[in-house]
Amino acid sequence: MLSSTQWRDKNRLSGWRGVQVALTLAFALSGTALGSRPGTAAICPASLDAAIETVIEAPQWERSQWGITVAPLGDAPLYEYDSQTYRVPASNVKLFTTAAALVELGPDYQILTPIYRYGTAPTLTQLHISGRGDPSLTTADLQAFAQRLHGEGVREIQLLTVDDTPAHTHRPPTWEQADLNFYYGAAVNRLILNRNAFRVTLLPQGLGEPVQVVSEDLTALGQWQWQNLTTTVSDEGSQGAIGHGQSPVGDHRVLIARSFTQPLFTLTGGLAVNAGSTSWQMAVLDPTAYFLDTFRLELNRAGITVGRTLVSDPPVDHIPQDYFTSPPLAAMIQGINQPSDNVGAEALLQQLGSVEAATAILTALGVDPGGYRWVDGSGLSRHNLLSPAAVGQLLQAMGQHQYADVFRDSLPMGGESGTLANRFRNPALGATVYAKTGTMTGVSTLSGYVQPEEGNPWVFSIMVNGANLPAQEQRVAIDGVVGAIATWQACQTQSP
User: How deeply is 353 buried, as exposed, middle or buried, from its count of CB atoms within 10 A (0-12, 13-18, 19+)?
Assistant: First the structure.
């Protein structure tokens, strides 16, 4: 019988072996072994099942829940591990949103934001922008249009109006309150500007003085009240508050807390005097007012005076004279999947009308609606539930669709782009990973394609929930599973 010390040592050793296997398999995927097309059975696992389960059944994952499916494109699954059970998918939901939009709207679809002019230069009696939910609009677009109007001789606009129909700012009710402070929890409306987010920079000052809060976007900054209770401290350590929204600099922390009864942010904690600057991307408080006020500012800067500004009803029986035009949908879904952009994903779902409308599109594509339940387009809500089997069905359908290349190229590419730029990095690799990541506390997911140098890709979906290990360790294990898939895939193609 093992003593308590021997038992701990045994488990520690067993856990380390699981980590070793994960690291070894991940290295195999990112190293030269696969790229050199192994010729001996020594590096080939006895079975795909054994290779994967050596990773996920290591003791450190005892309290975690894994779900996995693996299948050659166009074929039945070769491996499944609890693949029918719902998991919280995090940003793997974006696979469903972008696939539905691509199938329904096509890769060349563009969002047109109409602009209505009333009157002639030098004075327009009214200029009206009608929101259509384009997530790509930036201040630079408004600036360019204002300069164009000035070049056409416009010097005055008596009434500047916008409509944001339907007249509401959308956030799914199941998003966590703390997320609403930051760019990834920004509201979605029909007049999105700069992804409805702005950058705030914190600068330490003299010892004992409050940390300075600055932003280049004074319009967005001014929508909030700021209660600054921070202190610039010595570099010997501080007792700054720690919690959600903290900005770590060494041992020093600044915590940002939001009031939900008034537009107020309270900053507490401290930054070291020699810490340098640190930045947050914050959510705009009122996106419609932000769009209107920013447009007015850019018109003024271009030399055009503006009288009144209003949020009004959309024009009736008038033809727009201009449009703001979004990039093609193929570029938009790449801009969503590569960096995992929540606002872009929610805006795309808005183009489809609703989760129910998107579900109907995916059902027609062959994805079983009983295999998932989703409540938003981005995956930020923990009420989203996907089974790996349903994700596998989606990837199978899109991998054989006429827009297969467009969809695959929208995904982060291992070692090259997006959220996989620093994973699967070795260029000598004999397989390429195209996959969507997903991360939130206790949750890591990765779903996509492993493409060998020759032959068809394999589809995979890997989800782990309830993990109490750091996100990096979760990723190492997931990468180890992908390494097992790629190794097995390569071993099946080598000559006996």
Answer: exposed
